[in-house]
Amino acid sequence: MKRNIVIAAVAAAALIGGGTATALATTGDDDGPARQAADTRQTGDGTRDDREDDDAARAASSDVTAPEAIASALKHTPGTAVSAELDDEDDGDKVVWTVDVLSGDDTWHSVSVDPSSGKVLGAHTDDEDDTAQVRAALKGSSVTAEEAAKAAAGKGVVTSVDLDDDSGDTSWEAETHRSGGAEQDWTIDLKTGKVTADRSDDQD
């Protein structure tokens, strides 16, 4: 229904103005033209550029750093921080730090932290099936997620830190952004805290 009204309005505008109008092709859904006009995501490199722009905007909007968010989450929910990410809450417009904490009784908690104040907004338990794998990966490690985030902060604004236990060499992974939107992934050694560029990211 809306599509027909839009096409009619475009045609009427062309007749009244004495000029020409170009109709947008639609897929038949109600918000087709508006959605297509608003959606700037592209295929190929364009998609990555848009995502990097979004991530850079999140980084710039946060007054609370990754280490501070982790510290706040652990004060609220004691345990071992396994990851922290600055992201949209439930795919909404509000950006929050989400910190995953593994407590001493092997319960997983997802803690939301306000990026402006550092206040814990809420927490809930999660069901994870890789608890034993995470415990084994962290056994003997001396660098925490908070320390890994601090180490990576020298490379830019940290927007996420996560335990990488899928590869042969277990390490912390961190993503940073610099002014202008440049994104880089880093690996942080679990025992020494040494920060190195993620070579697989360079190849991508």
Summarize the structure in words.
The structure is a single chain. The chain has helices at residues 2-17, 32-38, 45-61, 66-76, 131-138, 145-152, 199-203, and strands at 80-88, 95-102, 108-113, 120-126, 157-164, 171-177, 183-189, 195-197. The longest helix is centred in the first third of the chain and has 17 residues, at 45-61. The chain is globular and about 35 Å long. The protein is of the alpha+beta class. The protein contains seven helices and eight strands, in the order H-H-H-H-E-E-E-E-H-H-E-E-E-E-H.
Q: What shape does the CA trace take?
A: globular
Q: Oligomeric status of the shown chains?
A: single chain
Return the structural class: alpha+beta
**Number of helices, counting only DSSP H or I runs of 4 residues or more:** 7
Q: What's the total number of strands?
A: 8
**Whole-number average pLDDT?**
77
How does the major sheet shape up? 8 strands, antiparallel
Order of helices and strands: HHHHEEEEHHEEEEH
Through-space gap between termini: 44 Å
Radius of gyration, CA atoms, in whole angstroms: 22 Å
Biggest sheet: strand arrangement: 4-3-2-1-5-6-7-8
Uncertain runs: 1-45
| Fraction in helix | 25-40%
What share of the residues does DSSP label as strand, in percent?
25-35%
